[in-house]
Amino acid sequence: MIQARNVLGEPLVSCGESPLTGFYRDGCCNTGREDLGAHVVCARVTTEFLQFSLDRGNDLVTPRSGFPGLRPGDRWCLCVGRWAEALAAGKAPRVVLEATHETALQYVTLAELKRHAVDIS
């Protein structure tokens, strides 16, 4: 099996397990054909971003069957398109580069991601 790579060209690391994130709910921002939204950007969500997402019809805060809802500071695999939209609006959350899948580079630049990078710790 080929190991996924991050935007730095290194092996992809876990984004978050509490709450468990990823399109495949494996803790990583892995992607595949089934992932039409490209959930590949590992972000540390903020109140501002969560409201931005809610305003666009994606409620990431309210708990519902199997989903605990997100709180500011949680790490979550975001759709790269939504992250780019938030970037354009000045509301993009910080990104964990080591946990952001290389597929993100098909949509946004490494420079954009680096400007919003946060340390993995």
Structural notes for this entry:
- There is one protein chain.
- This protein is an alpha+beta fold and 121 residues long.
- It is globular.
- Strands 2-1-3 form a three-stranded antiparallel beta sheet.
- The chain has helices spanning 47-55, 80-88, 110-115, and strands spanning 39-44, 75-79, 94-95.
- The chain has one domain (1-121): Phenylalanyl-tRNA Synthetase, Chain B, domain 1 (2-Layer Sandwich).
- The protein has three helices and three strands; from the N terminus they run E-H-E-H-E-H.
- 20% of the residues lie in helices and 11% in strands.
What is shown here, in short?
This protein has 121 residues and is of the alpha+beta class. The chain has helices at residues 47-55, 80-88, 110-115; strands at residues 39-44, 75-79, 94-95. It has 3 helices and 3 strands.
What is the count of DSSP helices, taking H or I runs of 4+ residues? 3
Question: What is the count of structural domains?
Answer: 1
Read across the widest sheet, the strand sequence of neighbours is 2-1-3
| Shape, per Cα inertia axes | globular
Average pLDDT metric:
94
